[in-house]
């Protein structure tokens, strides 16, 4: 992961991020919105069918895990048949970014990393043989101009496309299910939101502040420095506690209160040069889903507390059972 965007520093980071362009600008999002909206309706149809058949359904599995992989695959033109594999590999590699991963977790992360390399190396090679008008084809053309060594160019492309896919899957799936859980635990606010659907984007932002998909990220100091009175030596590891910063009382009034009426900025997407490259896509997916969910299932309730995977950095909601009451 040190060779992906999140682990790079300028000038390498600057070159790679610029090579992608403004990938989720207004035009791109406008083009993706009809697909996202249609896919949301289809997934909620499945949820409805399951609720009618058994009275209960796992929202995380049926909806939360499905919308992000369908969206990013549609945009990059990856086969639908590969969705399950991409989810499995993405979940596995996340262990490498944990605070204190066990030996078995690191082994799983290594196996997933090998799988991701094999998969996305093949994707880049296959797309190179039949360039189109999709995002990956454009990146291939860009890197053929930037880097005369084809092998180096394709290695860079592998890291870029792999990072974009895994970052969008693991984080957005958690966001989608977590917002259902948090609103369920705050019924008065959900009732207000049902009557004021125009506030849905703000509700999504509060979910990102209150319990972001990524609780911490790790950095290595490139030089001796001092931060808030603490001496940090070169090459020391620094864990940046994003979730804690989002509950800083000097920045947020009553920070431990879930309040969809907030307008304050948060660090759910990071900041600076490492601000999440897919932030606007995640917001689009979450907003479209929550609007449709509230319209179609106004009485939806969580039946049992969510099942979380025991992670500290990259949160993953394994199961969220819901029913209509």
TrEMBL record:
InterPro entries: Cyt_P450, Cyt_P450_B, Cyt_P450_CS, Cyt_P450_sf. This is Cytochrome P450. It comes from Streptomyces milbemycinicus. PANTHER family: CYTOCHROME P450 YJIB-RELATED (PTHR46696:SF1), P450, PUTATIVE (EUROFUNG)-RELATED (PTHR46696). Belongs to the cytochrome P450 family. It holds the Pfam family p450. The keyword Ribosomal protein does not apply. It comes from the Bacteria. Keywords: Heme, Iron, Metal-binding, Monooxygenase, Oxidoreductase.
